[in-house]
What does this fold into?
Amino acid sequence: MAFDFDGVVAGRVWCFGDSIDTDVIYPYYRYPSEAEVRKHTMEAVNPEFPLQVKEGDLLVAGRNFGCGSSRPGNILFDVGIAAVVAESFSRLFFRNCVSQGLPLFVAPGISTLVKTGDTLEIDYPNGRLVNRGTGKQLPLQTYPPMVEGIYQAGGILQLAKRRYDEERAAGQR
It folds into this structure.
């Protein structure tokens, strides 16, 4: 499911605290296959998450989400998470997810805006987050055009391939 940067995306919220590390997000060292890992992602901090997460849900976290090693964040999106909104992210996790085209949003104050089970609206074009139940809002920082281009392409590799194909086609004219 691709994130719609041109529209409004809303989903059920799963809240997590500060410093959720990649061992919790992607516990590959305990399970032999990707299918097994998906059944256990985030289980260490919320055993209900892997059992109840649905396509289009949103993950909200505190500070330093994704700290630890450089494991991929794609497992969250593989289980249905449409986007992650956090107070802050580990720099390496943030960079890896943007490179993969996985939507992350930094939003100071998000932990006070929603709780698990709420519906959060991400209105990217207008730069705001809205708790649909309470009507409370927070500003949402948008990305510079270069980063938006990475997201629109589906990741840095897809962007590079597209540019290569365009340059190659232009050179053959």
Q: What stands out?
A: Strands lie at 8-15, 58-61, 83-86, 104-106, 119-123, 128-131, 137-139. The chain has one domain: 8-142. The mean pLDDT is 92. Helices lie at 22-25, 34-38, 49-52, 74-78, 91-100, 110-113, 145-153, 156-171.
